[in-house]
Amino acid sequence: MNMKLIDILIKKENQLLLPEIRHSTTKLKELLSENFIEIGSSGKKFRLKEVLENLSKEKDWSAKISNIEFRMINEDVAQLFYNCVIYHNLDDKGSYSIRNLNWTNESDTWKMIFHQGTKISPL
């Protein structure tokens, strides 16, 4: 399959939104770099170990992304930006954020190395 990099990264992003991926340490390690760092919309910083622990405990969580932007930083680093709405249950009106994600090419596999979510007003 010869997909463009943006398509590959969007596919990986969508995988990270699936409960079966978020609850699997093995699958998450396939998508996230050992050097992964997240700055959540709360402003707290998390490393890979904390993210793996926290995601396995999530319940009733779903998300939708839109307005995806893509750019190459260099030949081994790509960046995505998108708007995200997270729902924690069926009656939830959603929590809105803009996401900044950096992907790095590690041994011919693209893995997320950085993620930041910043709260925004509903779109």
Condensed summary:
By secondary structure, this protein is an alpha+beta fold. 25% of the residues lie in helices and 47% in strands.
Model description:
There is one protein chain. The chain has 123 residues and is α+β, with helices and mostly antiparallel strands. It has one domain: Nuclear Transport Factor 2, Chain: A. Helices cover 25% and strands 47% of the residues. The protein contains 4 helices and 6 strands. It has a 6-stranded mixed sheet. The radius of gyration is 14 Å and the shape is globular. The N and C termini lie far apart (35 Å).
List keywords for this structure.
single chain; 123 residues; alpha+beta; Nuclear Transport Factor 2, Chain: A; six-stranded mixed β-sheet
List the helices and strands and how they pair.
Elements lengths: L4 H12 L2 H4 L2 H7 E8 L5 E3 H8 L6 E13 L2 E11 L7 E12 L2 E11 L4
Parallel strand pairs: 1-6
Antiparallel strand pairs: 1-2, 3-4, 4-5, 5-6
